[in-house]
Every structure is written in structure tokens, then in C-alpha cells.
Design a protein that fits this description.
heterodimer; A: Alpha-Beta Plaits; four-stranded antiparallel beta sheet; 4 strands; about 45% helix; B: mainly alpha; globular
Chain lengths: ~190, ~400
């Protein structure tokens, strides 16, 4: 994936962050993401993110599970190896329901976990660039992506004017990123040291 | 006044018209269905008359109790989101008094005046060993006494809660003593509701109709059915008030949560329905399968299957998406559908035992239903009038206003 340049502004107050997000967006900057210590209600709306399609995926995985269970059980007991248990009729629907339910939940849950990881680009072994380690503690980190038209100094000044406490510039890989860090990159961690 | 509800003329006309339909149906029923007939052979008209009254009066009474349980559960769990709309469940539970009186009169008349004994067959056990064995539990005295105890405590706690809730409005801002008192009241109600809905009232009022059959799931099943209907009623009244321009703090976020409740508890109901059905089906013991046999293979079959479609398939498919739960139109439609569905559920809980293979779903059933719906709407509207629509001194009001799902 491409290596990009980012301007990072850190906020220490949720109430400053919200108007800042609106002003940064209306000024035409492209917000890469906002990292918060806890889920901030309404921030996805303020950022203009579209609704996740995770639940649609979940529904599809669910009905896949239902179909798998129903066809699987009926094929096993009524086609492949005909078996009569307890004198019940063939294709005993009530007896199949618990397993169908379990398989529906299993498919939906496991499928959604993997889809979630894929949508968020996380997986075991994948290294993600951390823009500010304190964004898991008490700092709200807004990351603006720089395009070729972006004037970095202006962007920094603008972030300061909307209330960012600490502003810096970082170069990072966005998206999937297997392997080690690039030598050229000055990481936030190293900057601190 | 945005906070004060006055009954609009249209609501009054319509609810009174519905009550009039109900009363007219009742009179026609008295004339044509001979409620006080007796004799050795069963008069299905007589049985139908009483069974329909028992079905409707228990159903709507238990809904009003469940509506109060809505407040109780949230008070005890410190659930703040519902505070802005709390006056609505409070008002729905106000039907408890008139509904309780109707229910009690129906029981007294059936147990002591009517000669029909095909609904509560334990009324006259005769020489039936099975009925005599259960006679210590299933007898008119125990029935009436336990009903008085549970209905009495339910109504008393509701009265105390309501009084306290209105006193909080008139008290000082930030005075938490009212809230603390409401926790005590709610805790008392919760105990009596838990014991009541899952034992004596539901077992005696409804399960003893099939006197020789028993199910440990039955109380929960009754609870789930009335609870999801109560949630639908609350949603309907919230939407109605919102349409009238009231309840300014209630928005899609609150509707979304009510929709989630309706969705979740429809599935909970199905879970209990299935748990009860599958064990009976699997064990295949003649004593137990008679209950489902008469519902599944007789003239009740269409209602039995329709019940599952309305109460499970429709809610799970229609209320699944977020957009539908946030749509006032869809939630209104689903609330009406769920209430009707659970009315049908109560119908198939009550009717097949007494009526055997003579399923009837006609003028009398729907007329009485109309009467009870009118009564619930009118009683609730009357209660809504009596207090401001926003509990302005509740400690959780702000949490409710900024609620975000």
C-alpha cells in the first residue's frame, strides 16, 4: 500500500473535538480517521461515515448457517444413510431446530468477526501505525491525510486554530501492512525518544 | 402546553365507539350465546361466551401489569433512557384498576354463577382421579384468594409508584428521596410479579383450562407474550403522542430502543414457545401431547400456524434492520401486528381446551376485542391527562434526553 503523509492533531476534550471535526471537514481537508479512547456517540455521523454493512454480511452468514444445517441434517439422516430415531417421521423438523439455531449463530458470529477484521484491516501479525499511543488513554487524535494539494504548514496552523493541543506530521503506510517498518519513516515513538 | 395531554375529541369518539361495539357484542352474546345455560351436554355457545371473556380480560390485564413491569425493570436496573417517555407505561398500567375489576367480575361470575364447567373443568371434579389429585391447588377458593393477593399487591404498588412519581414532579429539583422510595416500591412489585406471573395467576387463570396438563414453561410463556404486547402498546402510545406534538424529548433513539425490545422479546417468546413444544414432541407422552394435538391437528391448526408466522417470522424479518426500527411507520405497523398476534396467541392458549374441535373466530371474538381495545385506549388516555408528560425532576431525565443508540 501507499506510503502517505499525515498531519496529526491531538485534542484533550471531546467538546472541542466535535466542532473541530466539522470545521476541518468544511475547510476541505480529508480526515483519515479520528482515534478516541472510548466510543464517542455521534462522532461517526460528524465524520460523515456511511453506515457499516457488517449487519448485512451477518444476515447472509446467518442464513447460510441455517441452510447448511437444514440441508446437512436432512441429507445425512434421510438420503445418505436412512435412519429412524425414536419412531419420528423423516425430516423431523423440531429435532433439527436446536442445531440449526446453533449453526446459524456460529456462522453469523465467526463470519462477522472475520468481516470485521477485514473491514478494519486487522489480523494477527499485521502492524498498524499508531499515531499517538495516548489515544487509548486520554487523548483524541485527529489524523488528516495530505494530498499533493495540501499545504502542510497551513493544515497545521488550521488545526491549531480549531483547538488542537499538540500537532505533528507523520509518514505512515495506511491499510494492510505486513512486515517491518520502513527505514525512512520517522515514527511517533522514535520522535518521543 | 407541550407537556400536558388533553384527550382530543377524535380519540374520545373512537375509543368510546369501540367500547360501545364491545358492550353491544356482549349484549348480543348474552342473547344468542346463552351464557347461563347448564346441563349434561356441552353448549359450545355458552363455553365460547365465557372463554372469550376470560381470554380478553386476562390478556389486557396482564398487558397493563407488564407495562408497569417495564418501569420497574428500568428503575431497578437504573435504566435511564426511558425516563422521557416513562409517563406512557405509567398510563398504560393505569388500565390495571378497571381491567382488574372486569377480570375479577368475569372470574366470580364464571366460578360461582355460570353453570358451564368446561373451561375450568376442576370447578366440579366429580370422580375424576386426576382432577381430585390436583384439587388442593385447582379449586375456586384458592383461585379467588391467590388472585386477590397478587392483583391487590400489583395494584397497590402501582398506585404507590404513581403517587410517588407525581410527588417527585412537585418536589424540589435534585431531591433523590423520591427515586430511592421508588426503588423500594419497585422491588416489592418485582418479587410479587416474578412469583405471580410465573405461578399462581398464570397457572390458575390460563394453564388450569387444560386442567390435567401442565408445563413448567407456561408462566414464562405468558410473561413473554404479555410483555412483548405491553412494549408494543407503549410504542403505539409514544408514537401517537409524538404525532400530537407532545413528548418533545422523545426521538428516533428512543423508538429504536423500543423497536429493539419488540424484536428481541418476539424472539424470546419464540424460544419459550419452541422449548415447550419440542420437549412435548420429543418425549411423546400421551398426557402431554393432547395439549398440542388438539391445537395442531384439529380445527385450530390455521390459528396455531398463523400465530407462529405473525409472532416470529414477521418480527424477526421486518424489525431486523436498523432503519425499520427507527421508522415511525414500520414500528406502528409492527406494534399493531404484534398485539394482534399475541391476542391470537392467548386465543389459542384458552380456546382449544374448552371448545375441543369447534374453533370459532367470528363476530363475538372481534367485537369483544374491540371493546377491550377501546377500554385500554380510554383508560390510558385518562391517565395520561392526569400528569405532565415529562417527569421533570427525575434524576435520569438528562440521560434520557441525550440518549443515543
Amino acid at each position: 500500500m501507499a506510503i502517505k503523509k499525515f498531519v496529526v492533531g491531538n485534542f484533550d476534550d471531546e467538546n472541542v473535538l466535535f466542532p473541530a471535526v466539522k470545521r476541518v471537514r468544511s475547510a476541505g481537508y480529508k480526515i483519515h480517521d479520528v482515534y478516541t479512547p472510548y466510543p464517542v456517540h455521534g462522532l461517526d455521523g460528524a465524520l460523515g461515515l456511511r453506515q457499516t454493512s457488517l449487519h448485512t454480511a451477518g444476515f447472509i452468514y446467518g442464513i447460510t448457517g441455517t441452510t447448511t444445517a437444514l440441508t446437512g441434517i436432512s441429507w445425512i439422516f434421510d438420503v445418505d444413510w436412512l435412519m429412524n430415531i425414536g419412531g419420528k417421521p423423516h425430516i423431523p423438523l423440531p429435532a433439527m431446530i436446536p442445531i440449526t439455531f446453533e449453526l446459524t449463530v456460529l456462522f453469523a458470529a465467526v463470519g462477522m468477526v472475520f468481516t470485521f477484521c477485514w473491514l478494519n484491516k486487522i489480523a494477527p501479525g499485521v502492524k498498524k501505525h499508531v499515531f499517538n499511543p495516548r489515544s487509548t488513554d486520554d487523548i483524541f487524535t485527529m489524523v488528516i491525510e495530505c494530498t499533493e494539494h495540501t499545504n502542510v504548514e497551513q493544515a497545521k496552523a488550521f488545526l491549531a486554530s480549531v483547538g488542537a493541543q499538540e500537532i505533528n506530521e507523520q509518514v505512515a503506510e495506511d491499510g494492510w501492512w505486513w512486515g517491518t517498518y520502513d527505514k525512512e519513516q520517522v515514527l511517533y515513538k522514535e520522535e518521543l525518544a | 402546553m407541550k407537556d400536558q395531554f388533553t384527550i382530543p375529541a377524535r380519540l374520545k369518539t373512537w375509543s368510546l365507539a369501540l367500547i360501545a361495539v364491545g358492550v353491544l357484542t356482549l349484549l348480543l352474546g348474552v342473547i344468542f350465546l346463552h351464557p347461563f345455560n347448564g346441563g349434561d351436554t356441552q353448549d359450545y355457545g355458552t363455553t365460547r361466551f365465557w372463554a372469550v371473556l376470560i381470554q380478553n380480560s386476562t390478556f389486557f390485564f396482564l398487558i397493563s401489569v407488564a407495562a408497569f413491569f417495564f418501569i420497574v425493570a428500568h428503575t431497578l436496573a437504573m435504566g435511564g433512557w426511558q425516563t422521557a417517555l416513562r409517563r406512557v407505561p405509567e398510563a398504560v398500567s393505569g388500565y390495571m384498576y378497571i381491567g382488574g375489576i372486569v377480570l375479577f367480575v368475569v372470574f366470580l361470575l364464571y366460578l360461582y354463577v355460570a353453570k358451564d364447567h368446561y373451561i375450568y373443568t376442576w370447578k366440579t371434579p366429580g370422580n375424576d382421579k386426576e382432577l381430585l389429585r390436583k384439587h388442593g391447588f385447582q379449586n375456586p377458593t384458592f383461585f379467588i384468594v391467590s388472585s386477590i393477593i397478587f392483583m391487590g399487591v400489583w395494584m397497590l404498588t402501582r398506585t404507590l409508584y404513581r403517587k410517588n412519581s407525581i410527588a417527585e414532579d412537585n418536589g424540589a429539583f435534585g431531591d433523590r428521596s423520591y427515586f430511592k422510595k421508588s426503588i423500594t416500591i419497585c422491588a416489592v412489585f418485582a418479587v410479587f410479579y416474578a412469583v405471580g406471573i410465573s405461578s399462581a395467576p398464570s397457572w390458575l387463570w390460563l394453564m388450569s383450562i387444560d386442567a390435567k396438563w401442565s408445563s413448567t414453561m407456561y408462566g414464562w410463556y405468558t410473561f413473554a407474550s404479555t410483555w412483548v404486547s405491553a412494549l408494543s402498546f407503549i410504542a403505539l402510545f409514544v408514537i401517537y403522542l409524538k404525532n400530537q406534538g407532545k413528548l418533545e424529548y422523545v426521538n428516533e433513539e428512543h423508538l429504536h430502543d423500543l423497536g429493539k425490545y419488540m424484536f428481541a422479546f418476539s424472539i424470546f417468546w419464540t424460544y419459550l414457545w419452541f422449548a415447550q413444544y419440542m420437549l412435548t414432541w420429543y418425549a411423546n407422552i400421551p398426557d402431554e401431547t393432547t395439549y398440542f394435538g388438539i391445537r395442531l391437528w384439529g380445527s385450530f391448526r390455521p390459528i396455531f400456524l398463523l400465530n407462529l408466522i405473525i409472532n416470529f417470522v414477521c418480527p424477526i424479518l421486518i424489525l431486523m434492520t436498523r432503519d425499520n426500527k427507527r421508522s415511525w411507520t414500520v414500528v406502528t405497523f409492527m406494534a399493531v401486528l404484534i398485539i394482534f398476534g399475541h391476542w391470537l396467541d392467548f386465543y389459542q392458549m384458552v380456546m382449544p381446551g374448552p371448545l375441543k374441535d369447534h374453533a370459532q373466530l367470528g363476530w363475538f371474538e372481534f367485537g369483544i376485542l374491540a371493546g377491550f381495545v377501546g377500554l385500554v385506549i380510554f383508560a390510558t388516555a385518562k391517565q395520561l391527562e392526569k400528569a405532565p408528560l415529562t417527569p421533570k425532576n427525575s434524576p435520569f431525565l438528562k440521560e434520557s434526553i441525550i440518549h443515543h443508540t
